[in-house]
Give the backbone structure.
Amino acid sequence: MGSVPQGNGETILVVEDEAMLLALLQQGLQSLGYDVIAANNGQDAYALIQSGAKFDLLLTDIMM
């Protein structure tokens, strides 16, 4: 089994409408060295993007 990729300050925008899962994802990704911007829904994510938030990767709930 290989090692888990570690972040180097990259920013991930996480969009998840289930609060417990959002917190878990945020904590896990931060522990791996990633910066995380969390949004509770698509509207919040869109507002963050419109405000100029910069991120390297978007991770979202496909069923949201």
In short: The chain has a mean pLDDT of 93. The first helix runs from residue 19 to 31. Residues 17 and 64 are 7 Å apart (CA to CA). The chain has two helices and three strands.
